[in-house]
Amino acid sequence: MDTAANSNASALKYGAGQLNPVSAHDPGLVYDASESDYVAMLCAQGYNATQLALVTGSNATAACSNGSTPGSPGDLNYPTMAVPVEPGKNFTAVFPRTVTNVGAATAVYDVRVLLRRPVSSRFRFRRPG
């Protein structure tokens, strides 16, 4: 993203929340995502060239028009995952995510899944390789 072109933006115009400097110093797990990953997500949401240029400050529209198969916003390697579900219907959702442990080699992490209503669910977690 073009920082120079957005130099008049305040800190409140960037990011998705508050920064905790103590936690930022030792994040534990990191979800790897690049600018092109975010641009692909915006393309999947239907952003046009003008909107992409406003968001990125660059001519990133090639990512949407390169002939690749359009993805889903859920393809972004990000900890939040959601799927629309019709009541009474079975469904399957797959959310591949890759994280890098930048914490202690012996660290253990817990997964928390929040469901709005009781559902019969099964979760599978795999390590690559």
- How can the largest sheet be summarized? 2 strands, antiparallel
Backbone structural class = mainly alpha
Number of strands: 2
What sequence of helices (H) and strands (E) makes up the elements?
HEHHE
Can you walk me through this structure?
Keywords: Signal. Pfam families: fn3_6. One of its GO terms (molecular function) is serine-type endopeptidase activity. By secondary structure, the protein is mainly α. It contains 3 helices and 2 strands; from the N terminus they run H-E-H-H-E. The protein has one domain. Helices cover 18% and strands 5% of the residues. The protein is globular, with a radius of gyration of 18 Å. The model has no long low-confidence stretch (mean pLDDT 74).
List the helices and strands and how they pair.
Blueprint: H1 21-25, E1 29-31, H2 35-44, H3 49-56, E2 99-101
Antiparallel strand pairs: 1-2
Task: Supply the key terms.
two-stranded antiparallel ribbon, mainly alpha, about 130 residues
Structure summary:
The protein is mainly alpha-helical and 129 residues long.
